[in-house]
Amino acid sequence: MAYLDHAATTPMLPEAVQAMTEQLTSTGNASSLHAAGRRARRAVEESREALAAALGARPSEVVFTGGGTESDNLAVKGLYWARRAADPRRTRVLASPVEHHAVLDAVHWLADHEGASIDWLPVDRHGRVHPEALREAIQRDPCDVALATIMWANNEVGTVLPIAELAAVAREFEVPLHSDAVQAFGQVEVDFAASGLDAMTVTAHKIGGPYGVGALVLRREWAPVPLLHGGGQERDVRSGTLDTPAVVAFATAATLAAQRREEFVREVGGLRDRLVDAVREAVPEAILNGDPAPEGRLPANAHFSFPGCEGDSLLLLLDARGIECSTGSACTAGVAQPSHVLLAMGADSARARGSLRFSLGHTSTAADVAAVAEAIGPVVSRARAAGLS
Amino acid sequence: MTDFPGAPTGPRNGNRLRVLAAMSGGVDSAVAAARAAEAGHDVTGVHLALSANPQSFRTGARGCCTIEDSRDARRAADVIGIPFYVWDLADRFREDVVEDFIAEYAAGRTPNPCLRCNEKIKFAALLDKALALGFDAVCTGHYATIVVRDDGTRELHRASDAAKDQSYVLGVLDERQLAHAMFPLGDTPTTKDEIRAEAERRGLAVARKPDSHDICFIADGDTQGFLAKRLGTADGDIVDQDGTKLGTHEGAYGFTIGQRKGLRIGTPAADGKPRYVLDISPVNNTVTVGPAEALDVMALTAIKPRWCGTPPTGPGRYTAQLRAHGGESQVTAELVGEELRVRFTEPVRGVAPGQAVVLYDGTRVVGSATIAATERREGAATVAV
Predict the structure, then answer these.
(1) Chain B hits for A312, Cβ within 8 Å
(2) Mind telling me which residues the site (Interaction with tRNA) is annotated on (chain B) (predicted)?
(3) ipTM score
C-alpha cells in the first residue's frame, strides 16, 4: 500500500496516541473545581501553552474547537457578525476563490442569509492572491469591509500565499484578516505573531494529531460572535466541555510538527521532488499545477493534471494497484466536481477534471514513490483510453 | 468455483473476471454484485450519479438517483467487501435519456426510458468506460439469462422466473454488449422474497428496501407535470373519430394511446361506452378518442431494429412483447430493409408509436425495434407519427 493522501489526513504520531491514551484513562471535566477537574484543566492549559509556542502565539490567543471546519466558520461568521454589529456598514467580505469549502461555503452562507456582499480576490495562475489585489479590493471602500479571509497554503495545488504581506495591507486599513493555515502548519513556518494575522485556523489531524480537534488562533482584541452558546468555555467564544485527551494529543503533535519541520521539508520534500520527476518522466505531458518553485509550494504536495484523463478513472486504477491518492477536489455524494481551485486559476474544465493530488507525509517512503513511478504510465494510458465521460 | 451459465469468460486467471457491478442502491443489484463476488470474480461496485442535482432522500418509489440511494449502494459494497465508486454520468443521461424522453413525447410518441438507458448508458457509456479501464464485464441486477451456445455465441433469454423477467428492457442489447454483460439474478428461479431473504442472509441492509417502479428521473412520479414543465402548455382539441370537438386539453403530450382516465370530456358518448385515446397528433395538437374496439391493432411497422445475434431472414413466427410488464402475442415478423413488419394473429390494444416491440423465439430474445406506425382493424387508417 502506498498512502499518498496525507493532505486528507495523516497517521497519528505514536507520541500523540500515547498522550491521548493516557488522558482517556483519567477522569475530569476541565471546568470542574475539584482535584480531578484541576488535573484536567492543567493538562488543557499546558497544551494551550505548547500549541501557542508551536504557532508563535500567546496562550490566551488559542481557542480550541472541534476542528478546521468549525474554526473557519467561527472566524468568518463570528467576525462578520461582530464587525457588522459594531458598524452596520460593514457587510463586505473579501475572500480568495481558492479557499477550502469550510471558508467558501461559510462566505456564501453569509451572502445568502446575512446580507453580505462578497468580493472575490483575483488569483494568479498558481492560485496566489497578491497584496496589491487585496489593497485594491479594500480601497474600493475601506469602511464597509467586515473581514478578509485568505488561506495560508492551498489544500489542492499546494501553493503558499504571501500571508505576511497580505496581513500588512489589511492592518493598514484595520481590516481583520483570517487565514486557514490547516495545510501550512508543519510544512512552512507558521508564526502567528510575526504573520500579523488577526485569526488563524489550524487542525490536529493534518499534523499527526487526532480527528475532531482544532483551534482558532485569535488576537485578543477580537470577540467573534459565537456559533455555540453554553458554558462559556474558551473566552466565551466556544462553549462546550473541553476534550482533554484530544487537546493534549493535538498539542503533542503540534510540538513535534514544529520541532521536526525542517527535517520534514528536507526528507518529505525530497521524496516529493522525486515523485514529481518520476511522473514527468513517465508522462511527459503531465502538468504540475500550483507554484513549481520549492519556496512557493508545500513540500509534501504534488498536484498534476493529466490531459485527456478523467480524475476518477485515474483514482480507481491507482487504488486497484494499492496507491491511494485524491482528485484533490471536493466531492458531492462521492462525485468529484471539477476543482474550483483549478478553475479559479484559469484552467479549462478538462484540465480541472483530469487532476490528481499526491500528498506525502511523515510515514512516506521511497517505496511509495517507486510504486507511483511504476504505475503512473500504464494507468494514464488506460484512463486516457477510457476518455472523458 | 461456481459460475453463472453464460457469464462471459475472460483471458486472465482462468475464469476470474474483472467485473464492474452497477449498483443502484436497491436490493437486486446488491445481491447481483454479491453473487458475482462469491463466484470468485474480482468485482468493483459503481453507483451511477444520473442527476445533476440529486435529492438528499428517496421519496415515493424512485429507485436510483438520490444521495440516500448512493449511500445504500456504498453500504452494500462495504458488506460485500468490494471497492466502490460513484461515477458521474449525469450529462450523458440527460442528453441520451431525459431529453430523448421529452422529445419523444413532444412528437406524440410514448418512449420507454429504461430501454434507452440500458442501450445508451449502462451497456454503452458505462460498458465502454469499464472495458477501457480493463474490466471484462458489467454486472447488473436485471432478471434475464445469458446462454452460451456450443459455438461460443451468446443468447439472451427470459429469466427462469417468468414473473420477474426483465428481458424486455434488455432487448436493445446487441451481441457485443451481451458478450460483456452478466446477470447473476436471472438464472435461478428466485422470487423477490427469496432475493430479499438472500440479501438479509448476506447482511445487506437494503434487504427490506421497497421496490422502485416509477421513472427514476421524475421525482414525484408525475410524468404529466414533468412534461408540462419542460414542454409548456399548448391548448388543443379532443375530437371523436368524425372530427367532432368533445373537449380541450393543455398539451397533446399529456396523453398515451389507449388511455381512458383523465380525458375530462363533458358529454358522454352516444352509446354510453367509455372512450379511449386513439390517436395523438402533435402537428395539429389534436387528441382523437373513440371506443375500445377502435384500438385494436392488427399490424405494426417498427424502425431502428437491434438484434441480439443474427438478424432473422425472411418472414418468421415469433411472440412479441410490447410493454415492460405486458403479455406475449403471437406474430409473424419480417425484416424489410431496415424496417420490421409485424402482424398479429389476434388484435392487440394499447400499442403506441415510440414503444419498443421485442421479439422472442420461445424464451430467446431475437431483437427489438421502435414502433413507428400501427395498422388498426377494419382497414382503419394507419396511425403513423
Answers:
(1) 85, 87-88
(2) 142, 355
(3) 0.87
What digits encode the pLDDT tens for the residues B56-86? 655 544 445 678 888 999 999 999 999 999 9
Please indicate whether residue A331 is annotated as part of the active site: yes
Domain residue ranges in chain B: 18-208, 233-293, 296-384
Say whether B308 is catalytic: no
The CATH architecture of the domain made up of B296-384 is Beta Barrel (2.40)
Shortest Cα distance from B70 to chain A (angstroms)? 7
Record: contact A335-B49, CB cut-off 8 A: yes
The nearest CA of chain B is from the CA of A336 a distance in Å of: 8
Domains of chain A are: 14-259 (3.40.640.10), 261-386 (3.90.1150.10)
For cell 489526513, the residue is A9
Return the top range by mean pLDDT from A194-203, A307-316, A337-346, B248-257: A194-203
- In B, minimum Cα distance to A384 occurs at B132
**What's the DSSP call for residue B65?**
-
- Produce one character per residue of B92-125: b if its CB has 16 or more CB atoms within 10 Å, e if not: bbeebbbebbbebbbbbbbbbbbbbbbbbbbbbb
User: Hey, what's the cell of A239?
Assistant: 462553549
Determine phi and psi for A384, rounding to 5 degrees. Answer: -70, -35
Closest-CA residue in chain A for B134?
A: A382
Residue B125 has its nearest CB partner, among A336, A382, A389, at A389
SS3 of A347, please? coil
Cα separation of B238 and B265, whole Å? 8
Pick the CATH number of B18-208 from 3.90.1680.10, 3.40.190.10, 3.40.50.2000, 3.40.50.620: 3.40.50.620
Task: Select the residue of B125, B128, B133 nearest A313 (Cβ to Cβ).
Answer: B133
| pLDDT per position as a tens digit, B313-355 | 889 999 999 998 889 999 999 999 999 999 999 999 889 899 9
Residue B88 near chain A (CB below 8 Å): yes
* Domain B233-293, CATH class in plain words: mainly beta
* pLDDT mean over A195-205: 98
